[in-house]
Amino acid sequence: MDRAKRNEALGDELYRALRERYVLDPLTDRHPDLTIDDAYAISTRILKNRLERDGEKVIGKKIGVTSKAVQEMLNVHQPDFGYLTDAMRYENGAAMPISTQLIQPRAEGEIAFVLKKSLKGPNVTDEDVLDATDYVSACFEIVDSRVKDWKVRIQDTIADNASCGLFLLGDEKVDPRTLDFPNLHMRVEKNGKPLSEGFGRAALGSPVHCVTWLANTLGQYGITLDAGDVVLSGSLVPLEPVVAGDAMRLTIEGVGSASVQFV
After folding, report:
1. What residues make up the domain containing 73?
2. CA distance readout (Å), 148 to 23, 33, 104, 152, 262
């Protein structure tokens, strides 16, 4: 089987695991020659299945593995990206059905950028990102992995659509030019008790840098960030395993809050 056909087959395999909620052994254990470009081709195949078979629509992109805390938890030491679809998004405060949609979910707190103009790399700057952003909001992303026990290398998580699961945005919409992104302070509560806190600088020094990185990385693959896209800029706190019955809330000083119930 040539490389392109193998990547398509692996994408179909991961898509089935996503839909039927089961885990696979790491792709990199089975295919040690798997490259990052292969992994993005596999991720694109999963997306093709979601769009064509399930009728989903792309509404944005996510950046993963940006903070040292998350990199150390996963032993993955560079960022990656995945696609967001309309089926992944829930309203603030929603009851999110992780018990029927996800396998081994973990919650993370982020800042979401919503774009009013497109961005196309290379040579996108932080200033370009600010100019293109309509507003930012507090965000929960619930990541998931179709790889057994989260034993992922960078190629595994990229292939698995950057371990995407579900997400929601808070209700407040804030002008990004009013914010000191590196010093934004996030506090997270779980089941009414303090859990973790972090600052904007945890994500590549600033969430803005993350979006800049994404625009330029996407440009290498001929992909753009488009007007209207939601861009999840990476977690500011460690990933937290969650189960049905848990509830979480986060607040970001100067930005707002978001909350979620898990069922």
Report:
1. 57-262
2. 5, 20, 9, 8, 22
Q: What is the CATH number of the domain that holds 189?
A: 3.90.850.10
* Number of domains making up the chain: 1
Please, are residues 84 and 62 in contact by the beta-carbon 8 Å criterion? yes
Query: What's the CA gap between 90 and 77, in Å, rounded?
Result: 29
Asked whether residue 25 is assigned to any structural domain, the reply reads no
pTM, rounded to two decimals: 0.93
Q: Which two tokens stand for residue 141?
A: 């992303």
The answer to whether position 82 is within a domain reads: yes
- Is 37 inside a domain boundary? no
Q: pLDDT digit of tens for each residue in the chain (263 aa)?
A: 799 999 999 999 999 999 999 999 999 999 999 998 999 999 999 999 999 999 999 999 998 766 666 666 666 656 788 999 999 999 999 999 999 999 999 999 999 999 999 999 999 999 999 999 999 999 999 999 999 999 988 899 999 999 999 999 999 999 999 999 999 999 999 999 999 999 999 888 999 999 998 999 889 888 899 999 999 998 999 999 999 999 999 999 999 999 999 99
DSSP 8-state secondary structure symbol assigned to residue 9: H
